[in-house]
């Protein structure tokens, strides 16, 4: 059956990829991409941050397999330019754009202390991916100052001074919406392993863009910042006891030298691990932060069926965690156990990077079966799934990163694969 599912999915993705493109509308003055077909009212016209990045990875694979080089280029470049045009002078970039305007939660401005979340650190990676496919960075040269302001905003307003780790401002729109390490926790209190993994790759991607534009000295400065972040992740977020990465709690009062109760032995730690087992712990494999020995230990954890491994991939939260549930929810989206296409894909990519080819193949085959069964039964794909039965939980015609199954199929067939930066 797997060959049938592969063929059906490949045909479906290639035939429907164009449904994720939109023409300029309202404040979106350039063509752009969206996560779903026009049949999905929630996602059909909105330009989302990390969604658009993975859509580019998919569209690159479609171009590669059909020989239609450049078919989607105006939509991918337009996506980036739309975000750049709505980035303010302080580097604040919206996380979502609709034709009627950007979505902002609260006030993200300098006047408000940059106290809200913004676009996730993925847009530079999206640009670097497009540069690699085109073979030239000239098209993004005029956007470099805006990208630099965006990254400087992260390093200035999202970085914890004591640890050097990046934190979320709030629990709003963090991508993995209801991650218990972030959700309902105090503002600016979580150094998220997800956020730090993304930011590490984003800093490396900016270094790559600068080198492509013959600015090598500047490129190496940004690569140094990436290494500083990786060092902070391994120092503060790796747990040698459990053999995995976790997010960390930063919510400590400042040390008061006049406080007699604590003066004899004030705290000597700057963070404490939040030992919540979710799929984000595997992102340092995708990011390339982990050592080979660390990766080996995490591979072992990934195989444990009592926690993460299910019939159809990787549970987004360990089944042994108290908040584990599989309910349908889109505000927030539910990442408390269901299988998502993107979590399967990123774990698959991490396994590939560290040479665990058999494990990567098994996970890719599970994803093909999950989506193949859904397509055969319903004629479309869904947003997330029951990890044990493969039954779709919600959101028909969700395309987006589910279409990365095309890249996984290419891997399984031994054909060239487009990968993110």
UniProtKB/TrEMBL annotation:
SUPFAM superfamilies in alphabetical order: Six-hairpin glycosidases (SSF48208)
Record GO biological process: oligosaccharide metabolic process; protein N-linked glycosylation
EC number: 3.2.1.-
Superkingdom assignment: Bacteria
Keyword entries, A-Z: Glycosidase, Hydrolase
GO molecular-function terms, A-Z: Glc3Man9GlcNAc2 oligosaccharide glucosidase activity
Mannosylglycerate hydrolase MGH1-like glycoside hydrolase domain sequence ranges: 47-398
InterPro entries with a match to the protein in the record: 6-hairpin_glycosidase_sf, 6hp_glycosidase-like_sf, Glycoside_hydrolase_63, MGH1-like_GH
Family to which this protein belongs: Belongs to the glycosyl hydrolase 63 family.
Name the UniProt record assigns to this protein: Glucosidase YgjK
Organism taxonomic ancestry: Bacteria, Bacillati, Actinomycetota, Actinomycetes, Micrococcales
